[in-house]
Amino acid sequence: MPGIEKLPLEEALEDSPQTRSLLGVFEEDTAVMSNYCTQLYEAMQRIYDAQNELSAATHLTSRLLKEYDKQRFPLGGDDEVMSSTLQQFAKVIDELSSCHAVLSTQLADAMMFPITQFKERDVKEILTLKEVFQIASDDHDTAINRYSRLSKRKDNEKVRAEVVEDVYTSRKKQHQTMMHYFCALNTLQYKKKTALLEPLLGYMQAQISFFKLGSENLTQQWEDFLGTIGTSVQNVRREMEEEVGQMQQTIQQMERSCDPLYTPCDPDPAHSPVIRSLTRKQGYLYIRNKTGLVSSSWERQYFFTQGGNLMQQARGEVAGGLVTDLDNSSVMAVDSDDRRFCFQVTSFDGKKVVTLQAESRRECEEWIATINNISRRIYLSENAEELAARVNQTALEAVTPSPSFQQRHESMRPCSKGRTGRASSISSVGSEPSPALSVLSLDALVAPETPIQFDIISPVSEEISGQNKTAAQPGRRSNPFGESGENSPEESEDSILHQLFIVRFLGSMEVRSAESTDVIPETMRQILAARAIHNIFRMTESHLLVTCDCLKLIDPQTQVTRLRFPLTSVVQCSSHQDNKRLFGFVLQAAAGGRGDSRVVCYIFESNNDGEKICDSIGLAKQIAFHSEMDRKAVEKKKEQDKAKEKQKEELSKQRQIEKDLEEQSRLIAASSRPGNPPASDGQFLVLSSSQSEESDPGEEGKKRGESEA
């Protein structure tokens, strides 16, 4: 006999759509077999009930046996041995169409009993197990839906324990019911052969024992053939019993080994740690679907990765559908709708965002790590898992300090070795070493043991707060959101450039060198490695507003300015060499009132191209530079105009004085002539307004005027 198709008991716990599809094939085969067995049973019943119709019933049986090849069995339909055997049986039964009525008793025991047992016991057992399995599956879906709706804010220990126990009981019941259902379906594949062959064998043996004169019709050749068929039936039965015993052992072993997997909580991390080197993963997740403008619903689907794509498949579907492209995508853990273990996948262009919920924290972290590995296109390499493990190990070593940072610096000091080690360190995040980096040491770029800030905190918050207190007016209401409120109208209205970008803050750290072009790639490497080590996947999303005066980080929900960077303090800005979505800029700001300055490097991830943001910042600096030059030119021109006006006024004043002096001299000359009468004692010369202002006031001025007259 050829091999028997079987349902895998090991996949009963996973309950994947592929397993359900295979189960549907077996159920369809059982339905076809049940229909065929019913027809065969009715035919043999006619043999037993009516002696007069024995010939017609035998002919019908022969015809049904001949039509076995026309039956479309999903499993075992191309069994040539079975088909040829039934064809030979059909030929013999057709020759024995005139059997005697005395055979009815023997036929009842040898022919009707096996087919009745198969129809009434085996087939009905399959139908009963099917109903029980359907009920257990529905109970498990109800329990897992209730568990997924547990609130993390209002955590009730009693309610959570009841829900976890309900999930445990329903999952265990579903698993055990499914395994027994699979075992019955696998056993049916053997029983359907015996259910067809045993009645026919009993029928033929009854004919041989009854007809002593059967030598004319039943020769020695037919007896050998029947003996061979009997041996085959015994072999099939023996193989079935062995397979049933093995399946029962497998069920017992899996019940013991799978008991911890029934609980949806996180298992012991020591026995089942998070695997971060996966490039393929599958399992059930909840996906959030929008049902309106502000409403959404969650649906449980089977998700799996296929190459660089994330696929989903519902129960009963033959194939899965595309959810999103994972190449160059981003993933992070999020809080959504009061549900736990949620993460969000954003496509490379930022146009599609998918929110998913895992069953446990371990599953959530493994999904995030797998999507990160696929986003880097590690799956395209030959040894994808080894490469993913090597990349994760490199990320761990990138921020794991050596026994001494100075020893690490001394080990990299030789030219050839230092350059090689530095290049390998930078290549872990995909950037190429530059010639300047081989000259600068690690201490020249980033200070040892420099803390990394993963939250948005202003580096000059104390200075700004002090300035706000000084500049605050009496009775002026303070801003409760922490905004400075000192934005000039030129900044908000008269700025030539206004560009808005969606960015996510990765981290910032203080650096030593502000002018080096390698300080931003080195900061990116350390921040990304630190995030990989400490499992930090959450990022703060903001809107970056680029103007000619400053850079602003704005909260997309409240439109509140989180941070404001003056454009004059931005020293440089660049993007990652390989991952163009990563970019950063170096900010040089005064540190308190000590006179020195601190240099901080900020790293972001964008939905758009990071080079566009850097180009926008460069354009803003150019516009600001030219605006400043124009402003200085205008101020200089105004000063020159004022100087000219002042010079003209002084020249006019000097001319007026000279004119007054000439008039005074003329009057003096006219008064000194003999024909003119002398001036009276009380008279004195009246000077012009300009001259009177400069003359001495009082009696001394009068005496001087009289003496001159």
TrEMBL record:
Output the CDD domains linked to this UniProt entry.
BAR-PH_APPL, PTB_APPL
Chain ranges of the PID domain: 501-637
Q: Where is the composition biased (Low complexity)?
A: 424-435
What domain of life?
Eukaryota
Q: Where is the composition biased (Basic and acidic residues)?
A: 632-665, 699-709
GO CC annotations, alphabetized: early endosome membrane; nucleus; phagocytic vesicle; ruffle
Query: What are the residue boundaries of the PH domain, all occurrences included?
Result: 278-376
UniProtKB keywords: Cell cycle, Cell projection, Coiled coil, Cytoplasm, Cytoplasmic vesicle, Endosome, Membrane, Nucleus, Phosphoprotein
Instruction: List the membrane topology term(s).
Output: Peripheral membrane protein
Q: Where in the cell is it found?
A: Cell projection, Ruffle; Cytoplasmic vesicle, Phagosome; Early endosome membrane; Nucleus
Location (main, coarse): other
Q: Where is this region: Disordered?
A: 399-435, 464-494, 632-709
Under the heading Pfam families, the entry gives:
BAR_3, PH, PID
Q: Which GO terms describe its biological process?
A: cellular response to growth factor stimulus; positive regulation of biosynthetic process; positive regulation of transport; signaling
Protein name, per record: DCC-interacting protein 13-alpha
The organism named in the record is: Iconisemion striatum
